[in-house]
Amino acid sequence: MRGTKHLFAVLLALTMLAMLIAACGGGSKNENNNNSSTTTASSESSESGSSNSGSSGSESGTAETESPYGDTGGLQLPIVDKPVTITWMLVGDEPVNDKLIAKEIEKRTGIKVDFQVYSSATYAEKLRVTVASGKLPDIFHGLTRAELRKLGQQNAVVAINQYADILPNFRKLYIEENPWVIASYGDENGNIYTWPIYDLQRAVNHGFMYRKDIFDKHGIKPWTNTEEFYEALKKLKELYPNSYPYASKTKESIFKDWAYGWGIGSASYPAYYDESDGLWKFAPVSEQHKDMLDLMKRMYNEGLLDPEFLTDTQDSWTAKMTTDQAFVTWDWIGRMELFYNQVKDQNPDYDLRYANPIGPTGRIRTLPLIEDFSIAVANNDNKEVALKLLDYLTSPSGGALVTLGVEGETFYFDENGKPVYPELEGQAVDIKVLEKHYGLWLEGMYLRPDHRSVYYNFTEREQEAQDMMISQNKFEPLDPVLNFTDEENSRIAELQVALEKAAAEFNANYILDKKAGDKEWEAWVQNAKKLGADEFIEIFNRAQQRYNAMVAQ
After folding, report:
1. What angle do CA 297, 235, 321 make, to 5 degrees?
2. Residue 305 pLDDT > 70, yes or no?
3. What is the pLDDT of residues 418-450, one digit of tens each?
4. Is residue 478 part of a domain?
5. Do 302 and 424 reside in the same domain of the chain?
6. Does residue 19 sit in the same domain as residue 133?
7. Enclosing domain of residue 495
8. What is the pTM of this model?
9. Number of domains the chain contains
10. Both ends of the chain: CA-CA distance in Å?
11. β-pairing, 84-91 with 111-118?
12. Are 409 and 536 in a shared domain?
């Protein structure tokens, strides 16, 4: 412990010296700032002129020179040259105003943030009451897209794109590099009222997994395609006749989980986007879906698929997967360590590993690069200050602050590039621990997470999963994010309930009934039409046409 503290003191001194040199060096380029924007905004927004927001450190709020705090994306710090206090309502378990995050934001930007923190259990109701009162905090999140759009059209929240000239990070990420964002998350007038989140997701979070210890014991090679998957299950059944090699706990979601390997998966499932013709289609009536069901039916009939695959609970599934009752499944990658830790005393050789996807595409879901948490800025005197703060937190520098902390003060990087927190020595440091001690990783505040953060630390098994999929680029293309009208959302909800219920019933009957075949399939396709499948998909394709037109502008 004493050696660690001494090392930390040395690192802190070196960091402070480097910051002093950078500050004295004026325009010297920070070698870590490879993505820094050199674009300078032409002028302040015409809607500027707030009396309480202070004035920016430069006319445009951006600068060519580097910040001592790293890559700000061209935004000049401090943001204001006289004290300003703004309010920010977000989700958290403890008060934040006395923690590092609040103090460091004020130190860097000049902005004092009054964080109004509520637990996840109470936040939604508190937000509704606050919105109804008309006294909006300067920054908040959590409304639906339709609710936020309505507030925007009432001028209660800011149309962020109208201030793009003073927001270099927003402009670069969401207008220049990803112009589809406004088409997907804005309104029909091309205004966007939500501040997106950039690059939050890990590449691989879910997928097929197999008992490597059992496969190795019997010389079974991990599959690389669907036929090899089937043959591996057959071999396991021969070796363990009382087992059902494939087990599942996701009930009827198994069809959605597997769908990506057949090219019909989607975040909008049961609708999916067909890249070959640019049209949305209804997955449960596609030939690919039938092929997938036929594989499941074959597995079920041969005792390769657990007969309780549609009813298994977490506990019953766990019992099967941690013994020799089942050997292959589909789940969250964290399960590999959880299962090992659960049984290692009884079975130290237990080794659940990530596997290749199955299906003709051999691909898994691509997680989104850009997401919408409905983070909004109230249209009041503090709007430009609040917007610039969000822009700073969207820069690499701001993202590192919110998800790592302050290098040389709260952490340092070890020889492997991993953050080490000396004050937290002996603790298993995760994002909840960082929230508790420093106010980091607060929901609604992380806008561009730094992937050196502990959130992106993987175990050896989890890293293998990332490397396997990334090295082979086994990801389905991302579907367009469609922007539906209120009326369309309402109709989609009405149709989807009946369609999903009927699809789930058909899927189960088709697999469980040995006599079910082409005749039953054709009857299902016709029934789906009667239930409104064509109308359901037509709504998606109308929205796609609007999306195409906006992106083309």
Report:
1. 75
2. yes
3. 999 999 999 999 999 999 999 999 999 999 999
4. no
5. no
6. yes
7. 486-552
8. 0.85
9. 3
10. 60
11. parallel
12. no
